[in-house]
Amino acid sequence: MKGKLFLFAVGLLCSCNAVKVNYDYDRAVDFSNYTTYNYYPDLHTGLSELDTKRLLDAVDAEMQAKGIKLTEEPDFFINIESNSYQQPKNSSVGVGLGGTGRQVGGGVSVGIPVGRPDVQRQIRFDFVDNEKDELFWQAESQSTFKENSTPQEREEMLKAVAKKVLEKYPPE
């Protein structure tokens, strides 16, 4: 019984930190032509320097697993940008006062927000053809971000983002 409860709790916690990804790509592109990549030389991800390194390491691992190599003369460049924002809480506690029966009454209700607002991190990945200088694939991830997370938690989250973002590259 305890094992089932533990698995349920872990599943619930993991579902709260789910990475959501939207994809877009040029349907006229032959993705088999793209076998090498690199990052833009002036890459400014909007992440801390350590988080940028963690994310690039995770992207490199995913790309290598797909057989796409990092080189100095790439077929395409990757640009990564991110931003963070607070998502307002939807939950609140209502406190009300009112009258019923034959008495004439009025009512007052106050919504009190519960908890702190979640910080969301949005990371956009642009794949740009080196020769044509045209965007041919794009993915945008959104996930909950905890500012006080440990380095290991940050690394695991950024690995999850890279894995989820690149799972549909190249498109079928």
TrEMBL record:
It holds the Pfam family DUF4136. Residues 21-171 form the DUF4136 domain. PROSITE patterns: PROKAR_LIPOPROTEIN (PS51257). This is DUF4136 domain-containing protein.
